[in-house]
Amino acid sequence: MGKTQKRGAVLCADIGTTSLKAALIDISAAGGKRLLAFARETYSASGGAAENAELWEAAFYRAVKILRALSPAAGVEAVCLSGNGPTLVPLEGNALSGRALPPLHWFSPGLAAPDGRVDSFFLPHAAYFRQNEPENYAKTSLFLSCQEWLSARLGAEPVTVLPTPYYRPYYYDEDQFAVFSLDGHKFPPFAPLGAPIGHVSSEAAHRSGLTAGLPIVSGGPDFIMALLGSGAVEPGLVCDRAGSSEGINVCAKEPPPAGVAAAHSVRVLPHAVEGLWNVSVVLPESGSIFDRYRLETGQQDIPYEETLKNMVRAAAGEGAPLHPVLRRIADGVLRALETLSKAGYPAREMRHSGGQAKSPLWNRLKADVCGCTLLVPEVVDTELAGNAAAAMFALGYSPSVATACKRIVALNARYGHTA
User: First-to-last CA distance in the chain?
Assistant: First the structure.
């Protein structure tokens, strides 16, 4: 997997809640097919969240082995990792060899701010940890996000990756440290997205089979990298990131007035591209509704597409246009689109990404019911494409991450009335 091989690629990985996804993505100027190889490794047989950070590392090494076998001619030029946020790893000792304490997952308890409004996604979890595990808090030298921890294990400097300067309040600052009585020295310095932050160490090279000295590029939280990897990096473009939960995200030049956002319950955050905004509606269940149906009907071991076909046939037999479970999911998307439209952000065409987008049948049904064209990119797990774009920028192949996204994202399928 050295640089002397034929095709230049980035080794991208995303640390999810229950599994790690990884890919080799071609960044050569020739274009064509970008996805050279893909692997997904679960952390446990039960499909639960990782109980310790070492499970992420083991899954990463297994995935690298699979990718090497699938695409032996790929010459890896860089590694870039993303992960679910705001998960934190309390680290005892140094970043390369220190002991990782059990992760503070994004769904773990957080401490409410004792005084004043706190924007940070991360500090409430660290504050709860300090209050309930004071001895472990005292042992903690650093708090790192999951992808930052794994990058450090590979040889990178311990940093906190800040997507854009506008995200500073959502991470941490001195005022918010003071509100929670947290030690700011336990949080590493910020690094920008898409920056070289180190090289694969000889020890990590031995464990993984990667080349020692390979550049490691800073990747951000999965939400940010998925937006970038969908190519929705210009005002008016929309990313529908759909898995167990779902978020419809509109790239906007200006945020809505505070009163409009509150009246329509839309979420407003800075975009992954500096100077732009992300206006979204989040559907917390979405795909998990389908997963529960599969479990309740004993179809959890049947492929998704086959279950969908069975549901479509059952609805047709009863004379219904759509199975009630699918109708419930689609109606949630319809309401979200209506909400965005009322807030001033109509979405008639969406880049569909995530697990749900891997089903052609569901793509057709969803587009028809919602009256919205769905565009499916080649790299459906768009966090990985976002990682590749960040690496292209870091390696000097593109003047910006946004420009790299336009090069890396290929829309392979179109579903809807104009398809």
Answer: 40
- As a whole number of angstroms, the distance between CA 217 and CA 203 comes to 18
Q: Domain 7-220 belongs to what topology?
A: Nucleotidyltransferase; domain 5 (3.30.420)
Report how far residue 1's alpha carbon sits from residue 313's, in angstroms, rounded to the nearest whole number: 47
Length of the chain: 419
What values do phi and psi take at 65, rounded to 5?
-60, -40
**6 Cβ contact partners less than 8 Å away, ≥ 6 residues apart:** 73, 75
The DSSP code for 189 is P
Distances (CA, A) of 145 to 98, 176, 241, 314, 387: 15, 18, 21, 45, 16
Domain 229-415 sits in CATH at 3.30.420.40
Rounded Cα distance, 283 and 359, in Å: 19
Non-local (6+) Cβ contacts of 61 within 8 A are 207, 208
Domain layout of the chain by residue ranges: 7-220, 229-415
Asked if 7-220 and 229-415 have one fold, the answer is: yes
> Can you give the pLDDT of all 419 residues of the chain as single tens digits?
444 445 689 999 999 988 999 999 999 866 678 999 999 999 986 667 888 999 999 999 999 999 999 999 889 999 999 999 899 999 998 877 789 999 999 989 999 887 767 899 999 999 999 999 999 999 999 999 999 999 999 999 999 999 999 999 999 999 999 999 999 999 999 999 999 999 999 999 999 999 999 999 999 999 999 999 999 999 999 999 998 889 999 999 999 999 999 999 999 999 999 999 999 999 988 888 988 898 899 988 888 899 999 999 888 888 888 899 999 999 999 999 999 999 999 999 999 999 899 999 999 999 998 999 999 999 999 999 999 999 999 999 999 999 999 999 999 999 996 54
With tokens 């808090």, the residue in question is 137
> Mapping DSSP to helix (H, G, I), strand (E, B) and coil, where does residue 171 land?
helix
Concatenate the DSSP letters of all residues of 262-277 into one string: HHHT-EEEE-SSTT-E
